[in-house]
Amino acid sequence: MAFQPIVDVSQRRVVYYEALVRGVNGESAFSILNQVTDELMYRFDQACRVKAIELASELGMTERLSINFLPNAVYEPEACIQSTLDTSRRVGWPTERLNFEITETERVVDRAHMRNIIDSYRRMGFTTSLDDFGNGYANLDLLTDLRPDTLKIDRELVMGCDSNVRRQAILKSMVSLARTLGTQLVAEGVETREESRCLLALGISVQQGYYFARPQIGELPTVAPVRYD
Questions:
Q1: Could you tell me which residue ranges the EAL domain spans (predicted)?
Q2: Angle (CA) 81 83 84, round 5°
Q3: Alpha helix (H) residue ranges in 124-192
């Protein structure tokens, strides 16, 4: 597992870390997931959760931990969460400091099942995020059925936003939408000071990307100071 910080630039602090799957030689999550068969997907999903919590505890993380999960690997939320709860109790990790990011949304055909997962996790004290919002299948229509706590804005909308008025207009409308729905926005893929400053001016203070730190395997990365002067 690798960890990447998610920063609230208005407060200049890390609010949580995302745990990311990596190969033993640093291979990407995409290359690893392509090797996981449908028959092994549930076991893989569970193993990633356990590993992320164990490693976060070993590293002394005090911030919230965000874990990606594959919705189709969750056949029944309360049953599938047991290994996560057992691991949290064993290492002393507070369950209220767990956030689950919904990935692989292009494979979700049962919206009722997904809504049940989110609602069940909320009852258990977890929070949830919808990843890659604004790109591909992670679009507005999902919000008619799903009620995630956080929407993670895809890099395609963030890239070059400081010099693109159309991107700025879209982002501004997303800020208004998120406020109406009571959902927090997180900008993904922030790579420059100018992008970060533009996002903050638009009202998106929680950000993630190489501008702050690259994912580090097996350790918590040092976060670069946020400077806009």
A1: 1-229
A2: 65
A3: 155-158, 165-181
Phi, psi of 199 (to 5 degrees): -60, -40
Q: What is the pLDDT of residue 195?
A: 97
| Residue 109: per-residue pLDDT | 63
What parts of the chain have a pLDDT lower than 70? 72-73, 75, 79, 104-109, 136-139, 229
Residue (of 64, 70, 120, 138) closest to 97 by Cα position: 64
Nearest to 100 by CA among 67, 132, 72: 67
Give all domains of the chain, ordered by start, each with its CATH number.
2-217 (3.20.20.450)
DSSP 144: G
Give CA separation, 164 vs 24, 51, 65, 185, 209, in Å. 39, 40, 33, 19, 19
Q: What phi and psi values does residue 18 have, to the nearest 5 degrees?
A: -95, 130
Instruction: Give CA torsion, residues 132, 135, 141, 143, to 10 deg.
Output: 20
DSSP labels, 79-122: HHTHHHHHHHHHHT--GGGEEEEE--GGG---HHHHHHHHHHHH
Residue 70 is classified by DSSP as: -
Helix, strand or coil for residue 4? strand
CA distance 68 to 21: 9
As a whole number of angstroms, the distance between CA 84 and CA 58 comes to 16
Q: Which residues contact 39 (CB under 8 A, 6 or more apart)?
A: none
Q: What is the reported pLDDT for 53?
A: 96
